[in-house]
Amino acid sequence: MPRTLSSAIQTLLAGTTHRVCHLLSFTVGATNYYFAEDQVVFQGNTYQPHLILESPIRYSQRLQLEPVSVRLQNIDLQTAAMLQTEQSDLQGVEATLQRLFLPANEAVILFRGRVGEVQLNEHDATLTLEGDLDPTATAIPQRKYSNLCVWDFKDSDCGYVDGVDPDDPATGQPFAICPKDFASCQARGRPHRFPGFLHITRDLTEAVEGKTKTPETERTLSEALLP
C-alpha cells in the first residue's frame, strides 16, 4: 500500500543520511502518554526519552501487521506505578508508532494497533503492539463478536426517543434502561438498529478468535459462514 509522503520527507529520504526519532503514543483513561527515543516536542506534545524498538516493523502483501515489541527503559516511578496499577486497562488501548523526520519536523505513521502483552520489571516495561491492518489502508470500524447491542441506550446509533418510540408497558413511561439483547431492542421499536450477532455461540466465538478448534466448532463455523 503506497504512502503519501511530503516533499520535505521525500527530499530527506533521497539523501544519504537523515535524522529520525521514533514516537509512541497511547491513552489510558483520560491521560495521554508520549514516549520517544530522545526527548522531543512534536505537535505540542512532549515525548519522554524512554523508548526502544525491540523488533522491526514488517509488512506483508495481505496488509497484516506482525506484532511489534517496544521497551520503555528507565521509566520514572509515576509511569511505573501507572503501568503496574492500570495494566489491565492498558491492554487493548490503541497505540500509535510514528517515525519523526527531525529536519522536516514531520512524521509518518508506521504502526497503529493495540497494546497486547505487558511485561514489567523494576526499571523497564516491554509492550507488545498488535494490529491486523496496515494503518495506511482505509479505516475500518472495529466490531466484537457479540449477541448483545454495543450502542449506548438512547444515543444516536441506538436512536430510541422518549415519547416517540414504544413505552415500557409495565410503567406506561418511556424505557429508562435497556438490557441490550435483541428482544429488548424489539420491545423498544429499534430492531433495525440492533448491531449484535443473533446466532453467536461460545464455540463459534472461540473458532473465529483463533482459539483451539475441534471438529464440531469447525463445522459450526463453516455452516455459519455459508450464504
Structural features, described:
It is a single chain. The chain has a 9-stranded mixed sheet. A two-stranded antiparallel ribbon has the order 10-11. It is 19% helix and 28% strand. The protein is built from 6 helices and 11 strands. It has helices spanning 7-14, 77-85, 87-90, 182-187, 202-208, 215-224, and strands spanning 20-28, 31-36, 40-42, 45-49, 51-53, 68-72, 94-101, 106-120, 125-130, 167-168, 173-174. It folds into 2 domains: 7-130, Thrombin, subunit H (Beta Barrel); 143-222, no CATH class. The longest helix is centred in the last third of the chain and has 10 residues, at 215-224. α5 packs across α6.
Cα-to-Cα separation, first versus last residue:
30 Å
Secondary structure class reads alpha+beta
Strand arrangement, major sheet? 3-4-2-1-7-8-9-6-5
Strand content: 25-35%
Instruction: Please indicate the count of domains.
Output: 2
Task: Return residue spans where pLDDT drops below 50 for at least 5 consecutive residues.
Answer: 134-143, 212-227
Counting H and I runs of at least 4 residues, what is the number of helices? 6
Share in helix: 10-25%
Major pleated sheet: 9 strands, mixed
What characteristic shape results from the CA principal axes?
A: elongated
Task: Output the helix-strand order.
Answer: HEEEEEEHHEEEEEHHH
Assigned CATH architecture of the largest domain: Beta Barrel
Which key terms come to mind for this protein?
227 residues, Thrombin, subunit H, 2 domains, nine-stranded mixed β-sheet, 6 helices, 19% helix, 28% strand
